[in-house]
Fold these 2 entries.
Entry 1:
Amino acid sequence: MNKFILLTFGLLSIATITTSIQLHCAYYTRTSNFYAIKGVYTCQIQGVNSQDSHDALVTGTHRIDKSNSDVIGIWDSNGRLETFPRGLGEVFENLIAFYISGGNIKEIHQEDLKPYPNMVALVFDGSKIEVIERGLFDYNPYLEAVVFDSKMIRHISSNAFDNLSNLKYLILSGCASARVIDNRDEVKNEIERVKPLCEEYVETAQASTISRRIYSEKLTEASCSASDCFEMNEKIEYLSKKVINLDEKYNSLAQTVNNLLITIGNLESALRHPK
């Protein structure tokens, strides 16, 4: 139980951290459809810089007769982003599509997506994201396409897609694989198939890291003599090692079970869709 509490605490803490960045855009209109969207006028990210308070959030020159209000898509095809940009809705008020390829984005949270209530497509074509958290899409009910095409996905909350009644494109890889193109009924079937494969995995290593950080912070804040603090630190170090040892054993067992569930899921899928 403690691990679940600590993990939740860690996710909530991380979700409040934002990075101030400046994007340089090259603007163009996509001639091909992007899932269900036609004619996407796009900010193709050409550069990402740290932002001073007086800098513009976005720079770049629009095509003739176009402005910020015409931009409905953000494209990062070169993996320049390291965090999901939250403030773009203040610049591009009509954003409905995100395409992020590669890059170093490790986390995506409900607060990241909340500023984009009209989002229709969210695509991560390769990333380091490991968790699709509970309630991730609660503020994005119009999503029709969700893609997490990365083998890094280890956990998908059982209710992650509950709010998405329009979802008809779903591509997943990692703890389970799914690929559905323009088929709402099949999306619903795949979500139910994926749940047991991905909902049980818990990143215990992250929980132990958070617990050690909390212990350290408590020790730093404590009012104690040098000898008392030293003794407390030794106890914390000992307990931390015990936690790490338990985490490693749990992780090994969880991974074995996860692999078995993936194999079973793949067999069930093969039986339902024989070649």
Note: The domain at 18-198 is CATH 3.80.10 (Leucine-rich repeat, LRR (right-handed beta-alpha superhelix)).
Entry 2:
Amino acid sequence: MARNASAEERSIEVPDAAGLKRVLPNEATRFAPLDERPLTGTFGAEDLAGGTVTLPAMSQAILINPATCPGCLH
């Protein structure tokens, strides 16, 4: 997970970003981190550009490795 806890938009560097994808939810999605299947609903994913994620103030992004979590987006 990438987090921006500042009051301004920031680009967050993601160590070891190769192979990671940023999860993009639709309107019917849900993230429940303590559930056995924390991501429910329909999600898409995009590659990380240059190993950074730009986040608005006080926000976070879910990052996954599809090779180690093949069912995470279903």
Note: The chain has a mean pLDDT of 84.
